[in-house]
Design brief:
heterodimer; A: about 120 residues; mainly beta; 4-stranded antiparallel β-sheet; globular; B: about 110 residues; 7-stranded mixed β-sheet; about 0% helix
Chain lengths: ~120, ~110
């Protein structure tokens, strides 16, 4: 079975603080893909990153960075110098190349990030 | 339009009423997904289309839920005899290929009263 766990339900930080959102996944697939999406109050899920299971290099995009560690089945997301506009719900998601090879996403419960000015 | 478009944005239905939710995917996208998002939860998969073929409907919660994509573009999710537990946001997503970036619409918020 595939599962994504985001243990942090809500995080509140003050602007300019760094914040890390945790994501732990379970899968039996050897080939799989991990995603992060942002959901602002408007409701639309905004794609942030896609990483395949064979690429464990960390990635940085501006203030965003991702740490993928297969040994601990984790794909954590760090926002450096947070801003009020970063306030949203963030979802980690998984898709696999297993028997249900449709590309459907298995989402975690989401972490609500509030950045206060 | 450039993105995935869903209509209506909001729908209030009386219990027992049938509803139809529409999704216009990005032009040329082969894959189309429907997800259900309950309040405070992550989206949950309902069904998947590859062009006009519905290849996976394992997430549909009951036989009251039906989806179609007859010409491989626009898709409709129909819910018959709505129940209160059907109240949720229904999200549509499309992607060019499997396991690539999926683009989501803004969703339809269904409230069953």
């Amino acid at each position: 079975a595939q599962k994504v766990t985001q243990a942090q339900t809500e995080i509140s930080v003050v602007e300019k603080e760094d914040v890390t959102l945790d994501c732990v996944y379970e899968t039996r697939d050897t080939t799989y893909y991990l995603f992060w999406y942002k959901q602002p109050p408007s409701g639309e899920l905004v794609f942030l990153i896609r990483r395949n299971s064979f690429d464990e290099q960390n990635e940085i995009s501006g203030r965003y960075s991702w740490n993928f560690q297969k040994s601990t089945s984790s794909f954590n997301f760090t926002i450096t110098a947070s801003q009020v506009v970063d306030s949203a719900v963030y979802f980690c998601a998984l898709s696999g190349e297993g028997s249900s090879n449709t590309g459907k996403l298995i989402f975690g419960q989401g972490t609500t990030l509030q950045v206060k000015p | 339009g450039a993105g995935v478009s869903q209509s209506p944005r909001y729908k209030v239905a009386k219990r027992g009423q049938d509803v139809a939710l529409r999704c216009d995917p990005i032009s040329g996208h082969v894959s189309l997904f429907w997800y259900q998002q309950a309040l405070g939860q992550g989206p949950e998969f309902l069904t998947y289309f590859q062009n006009e073929a519905q290849l996976d409907k394992s997430g549909l919660p009951s036989d009251r839920f039906f989806a179609e994509r007859p010409e491989g573009s626009v898709s409709t999710l129909k819910i018959q005899r709505t129940q209160q537990e059907d109240s949720a946001v229904y999200l549509c997503a499309s992607s060019h290929l499997r396991n690539t970036e999926a683009f989501f619409g803004q969703g339809t918020r269904l409230t069953v009263v």
